[in-house]
Amino acid sequence: MSSVKELVESNSLKSVPSNYVCIKNPEDSIFYETENIPTINFSQLTSSNPNERSKAIQQLGEACRDWGFFLLINHSVSETLMEKVLRACQSFFDLTEKEKREYLGRELFDPIRYGTSFNVTVDKTLLWRDYLKCHVHPHFNAPSKPPGFSETLEEYITKDRELVEELLKGISLSLGLEENYIHKKMNADLGSQLLVINCYPPCPKPELVMGLPAHTDHGLLTLLMQNELEGLQIQHSGKWIPVHPLPNSFLVNTGDHLEILTNGKYKSLVHRAVANTKGTRISVGTAHGPPLDHVVEPLPELVRDDNPPSYQAIKYRDYMKLQQNHELNGKSCLDRIRI
Ligand SMILES: O=C(O)CCC(=O)C(=O)O
Ligand SMILES: [Fe+2]
């Protein structure tokens, strides 16, 4: 199976091969612009001024409840590091196909997995996307090529964990829980962190293909950053909204495990990535979840007689398998464990 990058570079592509052409509902092609996407100011969230902090916590709670998405600004990861990571990811995809294929993964839990589409054994239509996935916590794994790649990623994922730890504190407080509640309950010190680097090469007819179809992420939270090309669209009140990232911001979305944990109070975000004609889009996501063998169920504090558990308890590893073994399709994975 060739990568999309290889396909695009091997012949000056004028049309899209038929196995990449996806059937879209007419309403899927309509999207709506809005300036109301929530923004969370990280420095306020971690402020020593209690009023400032509680305001930010309230905004965070509202963003999780009403959107499942926000742009994180004024955070502690330097612009220099973010740019370095994006350059390093681009140079990984610029390795020869032979070099990248050393990392061809077959199994979901292979520590490092290079591939194309989502799961080529179940995808009916191929996606306009190549990827590299690395399990980076509790054990760090990354390709040894290109030089410096692994070191850059390791520096980045450590910073990224620090951000998530603070976000989870804010989320716990927004739910009326003690600030380290989710961290402890999810055993986050040994939590799983999966790095997903997406590469969407330019496409002559983006309207015919999909980078990533509508889906939700499996973890608690996903932090995403990207190069200068846009492509993420989020679903809000049944409408597709394109995201225009602010400079130096993170795109943060809630995942299925936050929905399970909060018994549906903070719903996971349905989102997708579209292709473009202009150039190669790179996005770098990190999915943060509990340890793979941790069983997650709705928090007892958020379950009441008149609000019984809406999701079955499931081991994180089994949930990831459930998602991987079916085509990506909106909330279909979460629906499988809905009570
Ligand atoms: O590339 C993007 O903007 C989204 C990527 C994504 O949704 C994912 O990797 O799960
Ligand atoms: Fe996603």
From TrEMBL:
Its main location: cytoplasm. Residues 190-290 form the Fe2OG dioxygenase domain. One of its GO terms (cellular component) is nucleus. GO terms for molecular function: L-ascorbic acid binding; metal ion binding; oxidoreductase activity. Involved in the regulation of shoot development and salicylic acid (SA) homeostasis. PANTHER family: OXOGLUTARATE/IRON-DEPENDENT DIOXYGENASE. This is Fe2OG dioxygenase domain-containing protein. It comes from Psophocarpus tetragonolobus (Winged bean). The lineage of its organism: Eukaryota, Viridiplantae, Streptophyta, Embryophyta, Tracheophyta.
